[in-house]
Write a structure and sequence with these properties.
D-Maltodextrin-Binding Protein, domain 2; alpha/beta; 12 strands; 3 domains; three-stranded parallel sheet; about 375 residues; single chain
Length: about 375
């Protein structure tokens, strides 16, 4: 009886050992499988658009806030990046929408129109638009004519020109009749009379021959008064218009852009914003070309993402450009992926983790200085 009980217990012990060994084997197998899955590296096509300080190229190395954040996410998710640089945003967005690249990395603004075509990750930067102008804003001839027309003075100038030509003709007719020494040819006579009229108008001097004694002197004095009045009118009106233009034509913010030509980056949200405001724009491929157009006078202002303009101004203090006005149309930056991408949720999780670990905060301080 005792031997039988001992044999039964020994059999149970062997069965337990077998089950325990099988369980350990399955656990080891699962662990090995999990480690193998975690170590698998996935290659992804990453589209870039150079936009300092978010995406910059230094030799053969890409840097910038967006690049640093992406590389940290790629490291956490075992993603190997193959970079492809795009010259403009429309091309980058088009290839993302068509699935030719796996993710678009730059300071890409989240908009409703774009969200209908691609998937966006969790936003990682709050931004908006600003206005950049030249520190040497000048008033050109076109602005002066526009100011004269708007004030009604241009019509007065046209009447003045008509009076000058009428006086030239009357002087010619008068002198041909009463002055024997006046040129006989009409061409020469008109030129002589025009010179006399312009001399009176511009300098107040009468260089005509006195044909009628004291009566001629009186008429000459009256012409002097007319000349002084005309010169004073022209001087005062132009001075008034230029003073007004100096106060009103300078760009100090969004409210001053109507009537101006504004530079924008092709395919940017700034371009969409200017179109909504019915403001004339000129497209540029990148920030360097846009600033060059601003300095050369091709455009009177430049509208782009506030952090991009702020960084460019900080890095190029001697270019003679500055930011004016307040930030408007606030927006957010995110990474873009093709619709239905299986990477959207994992990358969004990593962006949230980057917020919690203060990585994004540290990157802002790295590229924009202390965050206040």
């Amino acid at each position: 009886m005792l031997a039988r009980s001992f044999a039964f217990l020994f059999h149970i012990f062997l069965l337990c050992g077998a089950f325990h060994g099988q369980a350990l084997g399955q656990a080891d197998s699962a662990s090995q499988g999990g480690d193998q899955g975690a170590s698998e590296v996935r290659t992804v096509q990453v589209g870039l658009y150079l936009s300092p300080p978010f995406v910059m190229e230094e030799g053969e190395v890409y840097t910038g806030m967006a690049i640093d954040l992406w590389q940290e996410i790629a490291r956490e998710r075992n993603l190997k990046s193959i970079y492809r640089v795009y010259s403009d945003l429309p091309s980058l967005m088009g290839d993302t929408e068509q699935g030719k690249i796996d993710v678009a990395v730059t300071n890409l603004t989240v908009t409703e129109d774009r969200a209908l075509k691609v998937d966006f990750t969790q936003p990682w930067f709050d931004a908006g638009l600003r206005v950049m102008v030249s520190t040497n804003q000048k008033t050109n001839i076109g602005d002066i004519f526009h100011g004269l027309h708007r004030s009604g003075l241009l019509t007065g100038y046209l009447w003045l020109i008509a009076v000058i030509f009428a006086a030239t003709l009357l002087f010619t007719l008068f002198d041909r009749r009463f002055d024997a020494e006046f040129p006989s040819r009409w061409r020469d006579g008109l030129a002589e009379s025009f010179y006399s009229v312009m001399s009176i108008v511009t300098s107040g001097r009468v260089e005509r021959k006195n044909l009628f004694g004291w009566v001629g002197r009186i008429w000459g004095g009256l012409w002097l008064v007319c000349g002084v009045a005309v010169v004073s009118y022209i001087t005062a009106s132009i001075t008034s218009v230029m003073t007004s233009l100096a106060l009103t034509s300078q760009v100090n913010g969004l409210q001053d852009l109507p009537g101006k030509t504004v530079g924008v980056l092709a395919g940017s949200t700034a371009q969409e914003s200017m179109v909504r405001h019915a403001i004339k724009t000129r497209e540029f491929k990148d920030i360097e070309q846009a600033v060059s157009g601003l300095r050369s006078g091709e455009v009177q202002a430049l509208v782009a993402d506030a952090p991009v303009l702020a960084y460019f101004t900080f890095q190029n203090p001697g270019l003679g450009v500055r930011l004016v006005g307040k930030l408007f149309e606030p927006d957010k930056y995110a990474f873009a992926l093709p619709r239905g991408s299986d990477l959207t949720r994992p990358i969004s999780i990593e962006v949230i983790a980057a917020y919690e670990s203060r990585l994004i905060f540290n990157l802002k301080e790295k590229y924009f200085g202390p965050v206040r």
